[in-house]
């Protein structure tokens, strides 16, 4: 009889813990969804190419600008490469999911480089061309959205053109 009581007690405890964990998961999910609606951050996604596979000038500029910025930051992961044709030119870029913080005129911006592999239909040539999706995520305070669009991104493009020379 004592064993049955002990087993019943353990089973009841397990069920109670399971219910509490599920309740916390639901509560956490609701809090996360609600807080994201009131977030003070905005994230812009800058794709490598637009829908017609045309290179995005902002993406290329960000790649050049951040590549230069990486040399002066404390990032621990750097992706380096060198093409055989290029004499002594080592390209430094961000590693997947790496973050770089930047300050423009006293305003803080955070960059993250993302790369996704996706295969819609491996037999379709257009699908193979779109198998890698690369983008930058630029995150900043939402009250600085106009500053980012009107000044910061044009600044990035201008700096990239200068660095490209």
TrEMBL record:
Pfam families: AAA_assoc. Keywords: Hydrolase. GO terms for molecular function: hydrolase activity. Residues 28-113 form the AAA-type ATPase N-terminal domain. Coiled coil: none annotated. This is AAA-type ATPase N-terminal domain-containing protein. PANTHER family: BCS1 AAA-TYPE ATPASE.
């Amino acid at each position: 009889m004592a064993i049955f009581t002990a087993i019943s007690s353990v089973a009841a405890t397990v069920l109670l813990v399971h219910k509490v964990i599920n309740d916390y998961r639901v509560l956490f999910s609701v809090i996360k969804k609600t807080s994201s609606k009131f977030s003070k951050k905005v994230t812009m996604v800058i794709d490598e190419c637009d829908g017609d596979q045309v290179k995005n000038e902002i993406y290329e500029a960000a790649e050049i600008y951040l590549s230069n910025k990486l040399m002066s930051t404390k990032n621990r992961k750097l992706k380096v490469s060198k093409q055989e044709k290029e004499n002594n030119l080592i390209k430094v870029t961000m590693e997947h999911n790496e973050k770089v913080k930047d300050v423009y005129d006293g305003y803080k911006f955070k960059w993250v480089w993302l790369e996704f592999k996706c295969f819609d239909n491996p037999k379709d040539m257009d699908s193979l061309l779109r198998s890698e999706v690369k983008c930058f995520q630029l995150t900043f305070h939402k009250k600085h959205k106009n500053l980012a669009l009107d000044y910061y991104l044009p600044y990035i493009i201008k700096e990239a053109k200068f660095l490209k020379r």
